[in-house]
Amino acid sequence: MTSVEELYELWSHDSELRETLKQSLEPRGTEWLFELFASLEPHAGDVLVDVGCRDAKHAIRLVREHELRGYALDPLPLHLERAQAEVDDAGVDVTVLEGTIEALPFDDDSVDWIWCRDVLVHTDVRRGLAECARVLRPRGRMLTYVTLATDRLEPREQRLLETATALVPESLDAAQVEAAARAAGLEEIAVHRLGGEWRERMIEDDSWNAVESLLALSRLQRREAELVTEYGATAVDAVRGGQLWGVYQMIGKLCPTVYVWERDA
């Protein structure tokens, strides 16, 4: 244990360390995910499914850049409406479908690629990955971005996030996600544990303001009773969970992780 004397001695001579920590580590950003997909060498005409597509912008981009045939899948009517509008405007070969990862509306062995970003934490991961393996062709691949809990995330913090942002506990657990993939017959080709890397890049690029998130959390905490009365506890918890999401990534409580899985032959 550091003594008080040692602590203040360190603090009085830590300018070099502080200057070191001001240096960028050239973090990868969100664009890297598209670069990773391209490095897997999809072929023109391959079938891609974006599971949990939201507004389908990722599906549109992937289809356009790699000349694929695409499906944008989502269970929420709001997302489907937005996705269809984006597809119509883009004029690309993407079909918008309603559906969930646990019950994919595709035949066995009919899909070459699955793109799944920010979805698994809201799903039954065992059923979902089993379905993905079912529809993938032998040697078909799945690229998944999922945010997982680390051992720094305390149980009360995890329960708050689960309640506030509709998370499934098993799908936050790296060991359970990886076990579900193996059970489904998905071989791990690569895993990239990003930690706070994307958030670093967002801050450096001015595309995310960590200070605003911290201010929002502090103001919410100080006015919580008033805000709950005005907006409801569900809305307040959802805002809290959303603001904590990025902060927890930065301090190591959550670890954004990218898996590349391949279906067994």
Q: Which structural traits does this protein have?
A:
265 residues, alpha/beta, Rossmann fold, 7-stranded mixed β-sheet, 12 helices, 48% helix
Enumerate how many helices there are, as a single number: 12
**Spatial gap, N to C terminus:** 53 Å
Strand order of the largest sheet: 3-2-1-4-5-7-6
The CATH topology turns out to be Rossmann fold
Q: Tell me the major beta sheet.
A: 7 strands, mixed
> How much beta, percentage-wise?
15-25%
The first-level CATH class is given as Alpha Beta
- What is the gyration radius calculated from CA atoms? 21 Å
Number of domains: 1
Can you say what the CATH homologous superfamily is?
A: Vaccinia Virus protein VP39
Mean pLDDT: 96
Instruction: Based on the coordinates given, report the CATH architecture.
Output: 3-Layer(aba) Sandwich
* Total beta strand runs: 7
Shape: globular
Low-confidence stretches: none
Report the order of strands and helices: HHHEHEHEEHEHHEHHHHE
Portion of residues in helices? 40-55%
Class from helix and strand fractions: alpha/beta
